[in-house]
Amino acid sequence: MKAVTVIASPRRNGNCKRIVDYIAEGIEENGGSNEIFFVDDMNIKGCQACKACKNMEKPTKCIINDDFRVIMDKVEKSDAFIFAVPNYFGEINAQGHLFMDRFYSMTKTTPNQLTNYPKCIFVHTYGASAGHYDEYINKRAKVFSSIGCNLIEVLSVGENKPTSGDCDELIEHARSLGRKL
Ligand SMILES: Cc1cc2nc3c(=O)[nH]c(=O)nc-3n(C[C@H](O)[C@H](O)[C@H](O)COP(=O)(O)O)c2cc1C
Fold this sequence. Notes:
By secondary structure, this protein is an alpha/beta fold. It contains 5 helices and 6 strands. About 35% of the residues lie in helices and about 20% in strands.
């Protein structure tokens, strides 16, 4: 079992990364592996809205040849895709938007949906009380199904957990998710 993870947080050991690490523990218990990429380390341009990806007469992947393509080509060869993003001012942060906007080139109205149907976990962390952003993040999560992912969980984590402590249940849940991939 091979998983690819994209972390949109700039924090190398923040809440998103910690949760991904717990999921990875579950993956590794089952003999699998997880490869992590931080959006901040990648060369990724914003969607240029050129709509080349929507031209069904001349099918093409996103014509911007950068690290988005590199990562999504890896996802296409993997069994699972994990995407972790923090909330900034009520929405996913800028790095999350940058990456997710490029999914426009892979939706149902393009020839570029993922054909391997990877299991997908969408992690969203924030400081507000647990569940505060559920409606927002569940709507955003639909994009993953639209690009061909098999979305198995939207993990919405409030109260600055797990770094704020008191999170045994969360840790066990994250590990069990990893075991399911
Ligand atoms: C610029 C900025 C804006 C934030 N805005 C919000 C917010 O509007 N609502 C909220 O609940 N948390 C907000 N937070 C808190 C983060 O979402 C939270 O600490 C998150 O778990 C950080 O994840 P990370 O440690 O992986 O970066 C904000 C944090 C920053 C740095």
